[in-house]
Amino acid sequence: MSERRGFRGYVTSRGFGGYSIPVPVQSLVLRDYCQRNNMLYVLPVNENIFPHSYMVLEGMIRDLSAYEGMICCSMHMLPQRPERRRKIYDSILSQGAALHLVLEGAVIARPADIEKVEDLLVMMSLSAQGTGLAAAVEPGRAE
Prior knowledge:
Blueprint (H helix, E strand, L loop, with lengths): L6 E6 L10 H14 L4 E7 L7 H7 L7 E4 L9 H13 L3 E4 L4 E3 L2 H26 L7
Parallel strand pairs: 1-2, 1-3, 3-4
Antiparallel strand pairs: 4-5
């Protein structure tokens, strides 16, 4: 059996989490993160541009046996539906690999790490909803 080496990158041309980061810049961010953390960076796969398409991601995580894990810029690059994200986390962890989410500074290397990321997603969603509600209410208006 061969030794696992490096972290496979995952990038997308689509916007995510309010960001629109060009693929070459995402690659630079991932490479820099790997250098700073003494990790070997393996060139990324690029997701299809179609909305809600995760074919490339799902194909990549089917076999991570050659890698220590995968790395992407943000948790917002993952599917929006929690059950789809859970399948991705489970697939990665079941292969003894890890998932690094650079902008959030999060690493999912064991099952307990999943809840931290999911909690952060819930808090961000609630915050966004609260911001939208606050903007809809006129200042000084009592109800």
